[in-house]
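User: Quick sanity check before I run a bigger batch. Here is a single chain. Can you write out its predicted 3D structure?
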Amino acid sequence: MTDLDMSVLRARAESGDSDAIDQLVESAAELGDLATLERLASQGSSTAADQLVESAAELGDLATLERLASQGNRTAAEVLEELTAD
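Assistant: Done. Predicted structure follows.
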């Protein structure tokens, strides 16, 4: 996907296009782009929030999981507990 394609996709997502949001979530997950996932999650995308937790866990990003858990994300808290148990 070119930079222009990504720009168009972001614009569509910002206007509420759910297909564009889903495509951005998928792309961000593939790239390990936690910042984009976090931005989309903060804008209300539950898919992005779920993917953010999954990607952070895969990358071993405990700081992100801790921050999400402290903000009330139960899934992040559970994953964090699993990763830090022992």
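Residues 3-84 form one domain.

User: Great, the batch can go ahead then.
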